[in-house]
Amino acid sequence: MGKKKEFEQGITSQAEDFSQWYIDTILKTEMADYSCVRGCMNIRPYGYALWENIRDAFDRRFKETGHQNAYFPLFVPESLLRKEAEHVEGFAPEVPWVTHIGEEALTERLAIRPTSETVICAAYHEWVHSYRDLPILINQWANVVRWEKRTRLFLRTSEFLWQEGHTCHRNEQEAREETMLILDLYREACETELAMPVIPGRKSDAEKFAGAVETYSIEAMLADGNALQAGTSHFLGQNFAKPFEIKFLDEDNTEKYVWQTSWGVSTRLVGGIIMSHGDDSGLILPPRVAPIQAVIVPVFKDDTKTLVLEEAARIAAELKGAGVRVKLDDREGFRPGFKYNEWELRGVPLRIEIGPRDIEQGQVMAVRRLDREKTTIARGELARRIPGMLGQFQDDLLERARKRTAESTREASTLDELAEIVEKQRGFVWAGWDGTPETEAAVKDKTKATIRNIPLEGGQPTDGLKDLVSGAPAAHRVLFARAY
């Protein structure tokens, strides 16, 4: 009874406090909770099931493009981490160190990986000898640790789950093509699977990955007007190949350094889904990755219980056979209204209601979580109609998110104008940038907004576009926003 009362207390509204709404929603839906380890989280089964579906959708795409999965050590010897100076400098403040085994001090400290470029490059040094060994197209699904000072469930935790791709190529062109291939793969997967529209582009030098020549990202706009870096793809050039001596004998019998990329998405995508689609009633999950796509809620009295439950079980079996992830909520001691509210909170895309009158009339009632639209479906059409309704739900969710992103994107021509927009309205802001780090730092200092990226489309300055700080001709048309 205590759990039922706790559920009925509801969640904070988005308008009242969006950040608290986010935390309330995660805790109430049992997606995750706080760990006894500072800055870390326990991902509970419902949240992990969502992550598994995200993982599988991305993993399928990696394999379709020729990549293979492997696994590398959690620990990185200090000497390896320090081989690429910019890389270690970028990660040093966040790296936890292992210094002892039992009571015995290690002769060399071991870093718990913040990312795996260095330990993987040490392996590639041993694996690459000839041009015939290339390309190497490897991905790993793993955990990494970056000791964050301020954490937020899923979006920023000291330990998180992710995938990290690491590839080696024979020449610069192949590596650059790989970088862009993955960036577009990320864009397509986020939009197709997560119903999350993103803007692909190149990071400024101040925002790029430590050790990369160029970093590209996909940027999403969340419901509260803050941006989320949803994934990154890095062109590493030969910045790691040279210190790690990853060389190969080419066809012309000369020894050359490989060209490399790395790329990743993480469990922050779970947070992105929550903040992109949820409302004051809780989660709204994209059907393609929702752990449960449809829930069946039987409605009966004592004298019709057996009739309704047996029919509900037949419906569940039929939908499962049609490829729908379906759950029959036949729990006793809970009224149908309570179950409706609970599954709305958990974001299940479709609710199917079945009662004795429905059985008599040969139909069921389907209710969409997105807009609570009700549809009467003939019993014989159910296995055909429900997959179609889920597909339409997915399309509508993406379209709604695209519309919100468009409505949250504005233009600014001066620093004061940008500051006012990000303070009062948030969202993406197009503005001119002269390309200097001084201008970029001045904007960040005054507005707390950063250059999210230089978009692949629309990033070229139009005639007469000026830098919003200096007034000099703009080198780029960029997207500014405050971000998680």
Radius of gyration: 25 Å
Shape: globular
Identify the CATH homologous superfamily of the largest domain.
Bira Bifunctional Protein, Domain 2
What is the CATH C-level name of the largest domain? Alpha Beta
The number of helical runs is 14
Largest sheet: 11 strands, mixed
- By secondary-structure content and strand pairing, the structural class works out as alpha+beta
- Low-confidence region ranges: 1-8
Beta-strand proportion: 25-35%
Number of domains: 3
* Estimated helix fraction: 25-40%
Strand adjacency order, main sheet: 3-7-8-14-11-10-9-22-23-21-20
| CATH architectural group of the largest domain | 2-Layer Sandwich
**What fold name goes in the CATH topology slot of the largest domain?**
BirA Bifunctional Protein, domain 2
The overall pLDDT average reads 95
Total strand segments: 23
How far is it from the N-terminal to the C-terminal residue, by CA?
Answer: 37 Å
Describe this structure in words.
With 484 residues, the chain is α+β, with helices and mostly antiparallel strands. Helices cover 36% and strands 27% of the residues. The chain folds into three domains: 11-277, BirA Bifunctional Protein, domain 2 (2-Layer Sandwich), CATH 3.30.930; 294-389, Rossmann fold (3-Layer(aba) Sandwich); 409-481, Translation Initiation Factor IF3. Helix 3 (45-64) crosses helix 7 (172-193).
